[in-house]
Specification:
24% of the residues lie in helices and 26% in strands. It has helices at 30-38, 40-43, 94-103, 198-205, 210-224, 245-254, 272-278, 308-326, and strands at residues 4-8, 20-25, 47-49, 56-57, 62-67, 74-79, 83-89, 128-129, 132-133, 138-145, 151-155, 176-186, 232-236, 242-244, 261-263, 267-269, 285-286, 289-291, 298-301, 335-336. The structure holds flavin-adenine dinucleotide.
Length: 337
């Protein structure tokens, strides 16, 4: 295990800003994670845990140690007639694992195809897409506490999962390193096709099956979202605000065709992308940063030369516009470092 110094982070985060870390290390096992946590470089520097860097915005160089768990195993730990339990190392690429599950005829995560990032980060914001959240299939999250080096194993119900949220984003933020996640996948067909244009796309492809579900979702995502390897971005930059019904009704009265989704009896979700578009931001640039022309929720490193400050300046102008037009404060989904 080598500790790199003055290490370029450009390939390690999907905005691809030209930033570096004072120190960088990629342990390949839980034992190596613990070893590095005991090392002097870890005790005397700020520490950041990095996955694929697809939900991180670096404002500047990182003055400390970046630890990127590179634990690469996919191990079947239990099997019954209908279900299979699999433990996956934190460093495994998320979409590689989805592909593995589809190749092995296992159901549950196919709707989460093509989400960038690593398995270790998937519980942090409870990744979700096309009507599925990863909490639906997580059985257990394993790791170590940074301070005490003690191991933990949280059951699903101990992770406080909610919409793009979990205990790892709140109470345990910066306190733990997730080293592996145990998933419970199904052996029988249980497709969820009722979201957006998934069903239509599958019917175009032919039979309604696991392979075609993954194909359809990959196709839809590729047609809507910019590939971070071509144009730097972190997917949705803002969360979709959830507001009281009374606030939502006011907006619906004042504007035409407001898309909205009821959450329980009292709350309503209004897509942030729609509000940003209504404010005229879609496709607009500010310096080297821009709002993507197809999806207003995505901010991009348009020229490849943007830095974190520039993207944050654009985000701040957007937040002000949305506040002034709709009276709603939109929150960033991305982790600003
Ligand atoms: C084009 C694009 C599309 C996207 N689409 C979606 C989508 O549909 N749905 C969705 O939910 N998200 C989406 N995202 C966001 C992103 O893919 C997810 O948030 C993903 O889980 C981030 O994984 P990562 O490994 O890149 O995490 P990073 O960005 O590296 O880290 C994210 C956070 O998790 C922490 N972390 C990372 N690894 C660990 C670990 N092992 N232990 C403890 N903490 C850790 C980091 O410190 C940081 O706070 C998209 C991003 C992009 C670029």
């Amino acid at each position: 295990m080598v500790i790199q110094q003055n290490y370029s982070l450009k390939p390690h985060h999907t905005f691809h800003f030209n930033v570096q870390a004072d120190f960088f290390v990629a342990p390949e096992s839980k034992e190596e994670v613990i070893e590095i946590l005991k090392a002097p470089v870890c005790k005397s520097n700020p520490l950041l845990i990095l996955g694929g860097g697809s939900n991180i915005l670096f404002k500047s160089d990182y003055k400390g140690l970046i630890l990127k768990p590179n634990i690469q195993n996919i191990t079947v730990v239990d099997e019954q007639e209908n279900n299979l339990w699999v433990e996956v190392g934190a460093g495994v690429d998320w979409d590689y694992f989805v592909e593995w599950s589809v190749k092995n005829n296992l159901y549950g995560i196919e709707n989460l195809s093509l989400i960038p990032g690593n398995v270790g980060a998937c519980p942090v914001q409870n990744i979700g897409a096309y009507g599925v959240e990863v909490k639906d299939v997580i059985k257990q999250v394993n790791g170590v506490y940074i301070d005490t080096l003690e191991s933990f194993s949280f059951k699903n119900e101990e992770c406080d999962f909610a919409y793009r949220n979990s205990i790892f984003k709140n109470h345990l933020k910066g306190k733990v390193i997730i080293t592996s996640v145990v998933f419970e996948l199904k052996k029988q067909a249980e497709l969820k096709l009722g979201y957006g244009d998934v069903l239509e796309k599958i019917n175009e492809l032919g039979e309604q099956n696991l392979v075609n579900t993954r194909k359809a979702i990959v196709h839809i995502r590729e047609s809507k979202l910019p590939d971070p390897e071509v144009i730097g971005n972190v997917g949705s930059f803002f969360k979709n605000p959830v507001v009281e019904n009374s606030i939502a009704h006011k907006i619906i009265e004042q504007h035409n065709n407001v898309p909205h989704y009821k959450i329980g009896d009292t709350l309503c979700k209004i897509p942030a992308g729609w509000m940003i578009e209504q404010c005229g931001w879609k496709g607009r640039s500010l310096g080297n940063a821009a709002v993507h022309e197809k999806q207003a929720l995505v901010l991009v490193n348009k020229t490849g030369k943007a830095n974190g400050e520039e993207v944050l300046r654009l985000a701040s102008e957007i937040e002000k516009s949305v506040k002034s037009k709709f009276g709603i404060t939109i929150e960033k989904e991305v982790n600003v470092i």
